[in-house]
Amino acid sequence: MAVAALTMYAPPTAVSNAYQELAREVAQRLGIPLESPPPDLPTLWHHPQLLLAQTCGYPYVTELRPTVKLVAAPRYTLPGCEGATHCSFILVPASSAATTLADLRGKRVAMNSPDSNSGMNLLRLAVAPLAKQGRFFSQVVESGSHAESMARLKQGRADVAAVDAVTFGYLRRDLPELVEGLRILQRTRQSPTLPLITAAGRTEQEVEGLREALAKTLAERPDLAEILAIQGFDAVDEGTYLPILDWEHQAIEQNYPTIG
């Protein structure tokens, strides 16, 4: 028995359901029975019988490299995505007077998680040249999710947030009311999309089998491909994601080690 769950994108419900269907179909194609996955992501990522999961690039490079193998990265058709990369959109309320990132000095930032590449690391890299004595924002609010960060902007409880282009694209398409009233101030640099991973103990042959099963499922289930806005998967390796650490080091060198 193995475990598989692709749970990094929710809401919208149709998208989260399609990701779960993709994981189940891959397992079925490989003839691998699944048991219920653990409810929390860290336990799922470290599970010794992990077949397939999705993680953020930042925890991959900072924590997970010894315990997982990379499988592939999706190529999305959503705005802000190029090949197997995506950016984050730095969002402000539509009513904000800000026209540049520098205009947000002393404002409140909503951040989904301190270990998020899209919500923290890419924003930190963008802000670092503007920080003074390690400070730029007046307050950092940890929201718990990109959707909640956007909600706080709309409620006037935060002034800026960085949201990855995939999340933003899904929400703008399926739940436009969550995006209304927000404005893209600027884009961050491009970054590898969230990688699909498997347990470190799996062989290269098994990893290649997972890639083939993903490709076949996407080709034979155009309904899933459309809902997920995925046009294919690229094989990736550790080197694909190591620039994420370089961006962290660049911010540290500019005396901006943490968002603040």
Automatic annotation (TrEMBL):
Q: Which Gene3D superfamilies match?
A: Periplasmic binding protein-like II
Q: Which Pfam families match?
A: Phosphonate-bd
Q: What is this protein called?
A: Phosphate/phosphite/phosphonate ABC transporter, periplasmic binding protein
Organism for this UniProt entry: Cyphellophora europaea (strain CBS 101466) (Phialophora europaea)
Q: What is the lineage of its organism?
A: Eukaryota, Fungi, Dikarya, Ascomycota, Pezizomycotina
